[in-house]
TrEMBL record:
Species name: Irena cyanogastra (Philippine fairy-bluebird)
Top-rank lineage group of the source organism: Eukaryota
G-protein coupled receptors family 1 profile domain segment(s): 1-83
Keywords: Cell membrane, G-protein coupled receptor, Membrane, Receptor, Transducer, Transmembrane, Transmembrane helix
GO molecular function: G protein-coupled receptor activity
Listed transmembrane segments: 26-47, 67-86
PANTHER family tied to this protein: ADRENERGIC RECEPTOR-RELATED G-PROTEIN COUPLED RECEPTOR (PTHR24248), DOPAMINE RECEPTOR 2 (PTHR24248:SF185)
Protein's name according to its UniProt entry: 5HT6R protein
Family annotation (InterPro entries): GPCR_Rhodpsn, GPCR_Rhodpsn_7TM
Origin organism lineage: Eukaryota, Metazoa, Chordata, Craniata, Vertebrata
Membrane topology designation: Multi-pass membrane protein
Record gene name: Htr6_0
GO-annotated cellular components: plasma membrane
Pfam families assigned to the protein according to its UniProt record, in alphabetical order: 7tm_1 (PF00001)
């Protein structure tokens, strides 16, 4: 009998967790891509088919052609709505650069807290202004 090392079951569960995490990310990315491409085809395919038909037989009314063109334009307006719904990184970037999209639970750090964090000094236990003066 060969004794099992205690790290072997942990490595197996870590490997499964790693694979499971990446498979969930891949599934979510595939879903997002499928939704984006599906909406693109639903919005633009009628326009392109009608455009070819118009070139061949000149039988498409101008109003219908305009409606299909605007359907494609509406698809372009849907992309900024779809991306934040499905992509956390995109949502964070929007919140970082657009003040209207920032969450109220995430306050902006003050200059003092940033300098304290970057100075590696941190708060000291017995230091106060009175002790320094």
């Amino acid at each position: 009998q060969v004794p099992h090392a205690p790290s072997q079951p942990l490595a197996g569960s870590e490997s499964r967790r790693f694979t499971n995490k990446h498979s969930k990310k891949a599934l979510k990315a595939s879903l997002t891509l499928g939704i984006l491409l599906g909406m693109f085809f639903v919005a633009w395919l009628p326009f392109f088919v009608t455009n070819v038909a118009q070139a061949v037989c000149d039988c498409v009314p101008a109003g219908f052609f305009d409606v299909l063109t605007w359907l494609g334009y509406c698809n372009s307006t849907m992309n900024p709505i779809i991306y934040p719904l499905f992509m956390r990184d995109f949502k964070r970037a929007m919140g970082k650069f657009l003040p209207c999209c920032r969450r109220s639970a995430e306050p902006r750090p003050s200059a003092i807290s940033l300098s304290m964090r970057n100075s590696n000094s941190g708060p000291r236990a017995a230091t106060s202004l009175k002790n320094v003066l």
